[in-house]
Amino acid sequence: MNAAAKQPAWLWPTASAGLVLALLCACVLHEPLWLGLGVFHLKPYFADWFAVLAASDARAAGADPYAVPNFFDPFGRPHIYGPWWLELSALGLTRAHNFASGLTLSLAALLAGAWLLRPRGPGAALVAAAVLATPGFLLAYERANNDLAIVLLLALAGWAAGRGSRAGRILALAGLLFAAGLKIYPVAAAGLLLAGRPAGRGRDACWLGLAAIGFGAIAWLYAPEFQRAVGLVPRLDIAQAYGLPVIPYLWDNPGMLRGWLVAGLLPGLGFWAWRAWRGRRVPAGGAEPMAEGWLLAGAGVWFLCYAVNTNFGYRSVLLLLPAAAWLRWAQGPAGPGRTQARWALGGLLVTLWLAVFHPAMMVISSLATLRVCAWTLGLENGLVLGLTLYLAWEVARWLQARWQAYGVPASGSSAVVNSAAFTS
Length: 424
Description:
about 65% helix; mainly alpha
């Protein structure tokens, strides 16, 4: 037995979480460090979680949580999420518990993220820490944004669906439905119900049908609340955001140097196109069904959020799920699948760490610096768009492989398909 096999499974995930926690403590002790890492710090800490608690307090006091402004929130923010957040006061949580509950949410998400990534050595631990410490993730911890709670639910659902059992799929479906009541976009993660061994064309269609019925029931029961919340969701007309509408916004900006913008967009898109071309013969998916579930869930919700609106940086925490799948496969046996996963991880890290330049872009003055700014924004948006298309490509290949698996005779060879056809 080698030395790596003797090491406890929790060692390197704990090391990754510890590194990020140390960085967070340094930011709290020296707050200018937040801006240096691309995070616009707000007071009080966990300001986004405070908004959720303020909306719940408003409902409990008989006020309208969707009113603009909401006088229970120091920034006057109305409630723009699902209706179930408004029941927090029934659990005894109020604005007075903001720090304790916000800290709990952020720490739980950090520890769960380290567990999801599951590094198995010092190099992988540094990669995991680099993922968990990207500016968007730090922003989510600092604000205790409720996207962290959605990621926790989707991670649980992916783990449950990956068990391949009826009980696992029931738990995964319950997690998806609960997440949909908190926010809208988790409906796009229903595909993770297909993770694990193929149950058969009819059975898998049945699970997806149950998910559609559940989502439809939630939408019908809470239609007025969802309509009001969607109508209040802000559209971010800023360059420092993620989303397909950012690209035309940059293009139409009178101060933008379009040539430099295109010069950044093209290599960003080209990188992911190159990886898709290089990986076209690599078998879809990987060796762990639950990791495939995370890939499906993360890709689905990210694609929906990216396509329909502009998003603050904390939305990038959704990419933790595909990152977890890629890191699992990157630590697997040598081969083209491992190489592909490592390139994907590297591209993801570059994409997300470019946000560290966002504060500097807000104070651009000279023309020479503006050229660099336009090129960097183009590169970032090209990488994000390319990443989104790459995720859609990976999911499409996985679903095609799953569809082919339905045709395997019921003689037991379906297990061979699941372990061989889905293994890189």
